[in-house]
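Quick review question:
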């Protein structure tokens, strides 16, 4: 009786039944929808196309597209609504290739697609990057008169931008008579995703001027564009809009704001936003803040945020670790870097290509090249990033021939790029492999298709300069397609100092100071050149110029990690709590190395003072103080790793060779350009640096 009543109800009101199915569809009540469908089948009621279309729509929106397709397959008389419902269902459930296929079958069946079918299939083309098929859809939309439909137009613009054809996306956008928030968002999103960040910001300004509704998605996209170009002022304006529109508690916008402020170096604002979203913050929030601190060289604060992240039970991801490992590499913080490596292994993400590259870089910059090589060798299918990281650390350690061997292996596996050749040329420069370096430079475009850029030309200037081939370096500069940048002139000036060529040095210094008026290094190097020739008037004149221009020489300092603490020392530094023990050790070392044959190279101090004063000054250089401290603080046999912000002077280089011999310890010094491995009275650079 109940079934008969249900049947009579059905026969009486198709429209009412369709409304019930639509309600189930909107409220995602899949089970009730299935019960209704079952009752229809149980009473033997033949489903009409009208109700079948509603059921297809309901199943699609509830995420069971297989049920929708089975029902669609059974419809004997499909109409345009049936096809549209099925195509839309496939698209909504990300079965994009099936949506495209269904659209093609619809055309074969002779049905004219609706604007909704067009929109769905064009979405599929966007996601699958089917640009040619997408163009065909655009042409068909023009033919049937849907080209100016806002839904179709928005999706066409989005498809072109996602496929990287921004010119066509812009044409489509301009041709639309009515531009709603969806179309504007598609364009802003397209500009941002194609790296046209300034265009994205300009589009947002126009959208705002046209008083189009601003939603969280478009704000998020625009904030990402701000972060990319470090548009701090624009970001603050967007922050005001976020607050005014009541979106401040939305996590995705909070994360985007943290990223904007972090990339612009405004860590105070970034921290404030981070605290506002404290209830909801996730790994993205933490990673953005950590990345900001790392970029500002505030490593301790970055590590503090990481500790808080772990305390809250949030698992870090590859982006978090990449930022922190980069910080450890820059600071040569081996202890923290090793601890991070342990956590990476525990979380099972040690196979991530980006993390592997960062680990290679971190161990290399901490002086442990053998660890870098081991990490690289344990990496499955290393990418060009990992290869370049390894090449770079090998070059920084001055192992030019090893860099060449590694390059020969690399080219059989991955294609070298611009970064590869920078590392290769640096390796050749540090090892004195001039002809090999020149050969790589002149063949990089012809053999590997890599066009030499500014940094490659700088490397060649450095290569020739270190080899004291000043005339060739000068001729090379003259033949360059552009003027050298500050780095290039600085390399040439350094070479002039090595060769004692004051005339060329003066020219290089003038060029360098034009580019960087605040560069104290240029004046110091030029002063050293004049001092070498004992032209004390010129030296005094340059010193006065520095004082009058408020230009200060960058002070030299060295640091060494003992346990979990970094100890920093300056020249003639008496501030350390253990200074008495340190200087006692220094004096003892001086006696030992003199006995072993060390003779102070007082000419390395370009000042008018007697040799005894010079010797005392050299004896108290920061790297020697750091080594003395390490010797009294670290367990015997453990390698000593010292970092210095300036180039190691010739006298300290000589002294450390002797120290390594008399104490029987390996000493690794990282200065501002390379690594020196001292052992048994020798240095890995073979006195070429």
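Suggested answer, residue by residue:
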């Amino acid at each position: 009786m109940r079934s008969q009543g249900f049947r009579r109800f059905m026969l009486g009101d198709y429209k009412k039944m369709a409304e019930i199915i639509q309600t189930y569809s909107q409220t995602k009540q899949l089970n009730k929808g299935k019960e209704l469908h079952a009752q229809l089948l149980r009473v033997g009621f033949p489903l009409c196309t009208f109700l079948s279309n509603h059921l297809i729509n309901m199943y699609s929106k509830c995420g069971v597209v297989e049920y929708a397709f089975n029902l669609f397959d059974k419809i004997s008389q499909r109409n345009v609504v049936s096809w549209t419902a099925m195509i839309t269902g496939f698209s909504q459930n990300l079965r994009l290739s099936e949506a495209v296929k269904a659209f093609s079958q619809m055309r074969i069946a002779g049905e004219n697609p609706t604007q909704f079918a067009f929109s769905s299939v064009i979405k599929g083309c966007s996601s699958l990057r089917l640009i040619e098929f997408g163009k065909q859809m655009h042409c068909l939309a023009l033919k049937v008169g849907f080209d100016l439909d806002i839904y179709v137009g928005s999706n066409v613009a989005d498809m072109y931008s996602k496929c990287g054809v921004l010119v066509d996306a812009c044409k489509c956008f301009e041709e639309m008579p009515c531009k709603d928030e969806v179309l504007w968002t598609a364009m802003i999103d397209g500009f941002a995703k194609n790296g046209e960040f300034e265009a994205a910001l300009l589009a947002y300004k126009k959208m705002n001027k046209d008083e189009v509704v601003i939603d969280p998605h478009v704000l998020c996209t625009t904030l990402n564009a701000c972060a990319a170009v470090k548009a701090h002022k624009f970001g603050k304006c967007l922050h005001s809009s976020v607050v005014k529109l009541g979106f401040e508690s939305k996590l995705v916008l909070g994360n985007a704001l943290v990223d904007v402020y972090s990339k612009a170096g405004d860590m105070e604002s970034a921290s404030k936003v981070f605290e506002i979203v404290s209830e909801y913050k996730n790994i993205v929030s933490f990673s953005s803040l950590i990345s900001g601190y790392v970029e500002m060289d505030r490593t301790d604060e970055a590590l503090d945020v990481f500790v808080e992240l772990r305390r809250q039970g949030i698992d870090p991801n590859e982006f978090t670790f990449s930022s922190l490992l980069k910080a450890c590499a820059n600071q040569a913080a081996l202890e923290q870097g090793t601890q991070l490596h342990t956590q990476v292994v525990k979380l099972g993400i040690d196979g991530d290509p980006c993390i592997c590259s960062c680990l290679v870089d971190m161990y290399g910059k901490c002086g442990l090249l053998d660890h870098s090589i081991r990490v690289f060798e344990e990496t499955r299918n290393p990418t060009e990033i990992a290869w370049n990281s390894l090449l770079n650390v090998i070059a920084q350690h001055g192992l030019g021939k090893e860099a060449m061997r590694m390059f020969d292996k690399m080219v059989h596996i991955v294609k070298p790029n611009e970064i590869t050749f920078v590392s290769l040329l640096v390796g050749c420069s540090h090892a004195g492999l001039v002809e090999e370096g020149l050969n790589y430079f002149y063949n990089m475009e012809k053999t590997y298709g890599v066009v030499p850029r500014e940094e490659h030309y700088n490397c060649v200037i450095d290569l020739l300069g270190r080899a004291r081939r000043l005339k060739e370096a000068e001729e090379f500069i003259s033949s360059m397609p552009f003027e050298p940048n500050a780095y290039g002139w600085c390399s040439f000036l350094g070479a002039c100092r090595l060769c004692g060529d004051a005339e060329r040095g003066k020219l290089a210094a003038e060029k360098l100071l034009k580019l960087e008026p605040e560069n104290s290094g240029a004046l110091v190097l030029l002063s050293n050149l004049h001092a070498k020739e004992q032209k004390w008037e010129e030296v005094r004149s340059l010193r006065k110029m520095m004082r009058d221009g408020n230009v200060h020489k960058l002070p030299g300092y060295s640091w060494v990690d003992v346990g979990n603490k970094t100890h920093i020392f300056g020249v003639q530094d008496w501030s350390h709590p253990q200074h008495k023990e340190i200087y006692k050790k220094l004096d003892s070392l001086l006696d030992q190395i003199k006995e072993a044959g060390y003779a102070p190279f007082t000419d390395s101090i370009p000042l008018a003072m007697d040799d005894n004063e010079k010797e005392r000054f050299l004896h108290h250089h920061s790297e020697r103080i750091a080594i003395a401290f390490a010797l009294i603080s670290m367990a015997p046999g453990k390698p000593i790793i010292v970092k210095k912000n300036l180039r190691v002077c010739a006298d300290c280089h000589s002294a450390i060779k002797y120290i390594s011999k008399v104490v029987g310890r390996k000493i690794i010094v990282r200065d501002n350009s390379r690594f020196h491995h001292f052992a048994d009275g020798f240095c890995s650079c073979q006195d070429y640096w």
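Why it works: The chain has 37 helices and six strands. The mean pLDDT is 89.
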